[in-house]
Write the structure tokens for this entry.
Amino acid sequence: MPELPEVETIVRALRKPLVGRTITAVSNDWPRQLATHTLEALNWQLKGQRVEAVKRRAKYLVFELSGGDTLIIHLKMSGHLAVVEAGEPRHKHVHTVFSLDNGRELRFRNMRKFGRVYLVKDPETVLGKLGPEPLADSFSPAVLRERLNGRSRAMKPLLLDQHFLAGVGNIYADESLFYSKIHPQRTADSLTENEVEALYTAIQKVLKMGIAREGASIDLYTKPDGTYGDMQNAVAVFRRTGLPCYVCQTPIARIVMNGRSTHFCPHCQR
Ligand SMILES: [Zn+2]
């Protein structure tokens, strides 16, 4: 699933072709993708609205519109967004298309059909319960410590919980725990002060690395132009099962926690 760095990469790539453009129509052949409206209502509401800003919150793309509405897209497992000329052949997994006033269109491709499109007056109705943004100035070691306090959950599933912290998914959770030398099965309330600091630093490091490398093209993620990110070449543990740890040469281990594969170094992470 695209995580914070992948969605941030997509947002940055979509700003130039979308900001200032007006949406002239929407088409859709998979109604379940439309979370808040019927296609007819979405057309009526969206038509004529200009894209004022393209932003990211957690793993959501947030499009601020001139009519005061906010269009929100979640890519889920395998969603892909691209702005292309309307005449270009459409991939069979494109299920939602936003036509623009310059002869181009924003296409939402979703092989597994899990992606969601929301149109809301108040973005908080979709985004309100999310945890803090890990790269925001307001997120600090103190904030992380406070959120960890008194929690008995294991660290790996806790980091994946979007209400605990927004934007971190399987790849960046495993990488963060590796760099902070914390075993994924450790409980939140067992972390020392130094470990909380190390975790904060590691989360920042891996997310910034992911953005700088324009995301990890593991599974189906590609950038809007169809090219690959580069973070998959820089992971320390994720899907490196059996390969030597870069620090101590111990083979990377894999366990399953809450149904999610979890990769770690049994020597470095305690
Ligand atoms: Zn190691």
